Amino acid sequence: MRIALAGLATSHPYTDARTLARYAELVVWEPDPERLGRFTAEHPSAVVVPSLAEALATRPDGVVLTVPNPRVPDALAAVLETGAACFVNKPAAAGRDQLDRLDRLPIHDRVMSTSVLRFAPAFAGLTVDPADVLAVRATVRHDVGLWASGYNAWQDTPGEGGGTMVTMGVHGVELLVALLGPDVRLVGAAGARRHYTTLRSEDTGVMALRWSHGVTGTVEVLGVSEGESYSVTLHRRDSSETVVIEGGDDPIQGLGYEGTIAAFLDMVKGAPSPVPWAQTRAILDVLVSAREAAPPAADA
Fold it and tell me: For the GFO/IDH/MocA-like oxidoreductase domain, which residue ranges apply (predicted)?
């Protein structure tokens, strides 16, 4: 089996590769020499190619696509021409123009883009009946202080990577849409810089959502945090239930990276994506709408 890692723009493909290397020959393309060097130091047997076209020319069985958001539509279009299974590391779009360009692509059922948390053992398999739920809340705790130093500035730029609201908010929106379905819309959003004043976006944010069946939801994004954790709270008439997702002793398993790659490898073998594109499209629309509703925040 041959898997192409097309781009190393975030930390995720490095983590993905640790699982993939147990099952497949790795082909890697990344234009940044430092990022590529860091990858090949860990995976010296990986086949390095100088372009996306040459990565796809190796006829990979699957592609993990991780390029800056503005480049995703064109890169995904090239992958789609091969017919290979494709995992697009989150989020697949961070702005309206990017989402419109994705909408024009012939995305097939072996394309997946998701937060890995959907596959975390603490969350996977959780189901709810919307009729039993009054409201839901997702809380994302993931520190963004690295961006405050200028690292990966495109992620922190609202017009490129979407900033904290999009790049971290996707985790919360993903979990709620996985539970309650894609018939959801954003009804409000706000962000602020509470601590990291050199950010281009915000370090805290909140989104309000409403599903067509009447359930309301809140996504809290806390980008100033000493630890990384995620939670979903289900409010019912007589009680509230909270599910907490943490890395634990094995973050690759505990945060869902391993489960995500297992799902991707099933796609490589011919299975459809377990995450319907209709859900991904709804998640991206909520995030893009939140970015539009909450312009870059002033310090608070």
Answer: 132-228
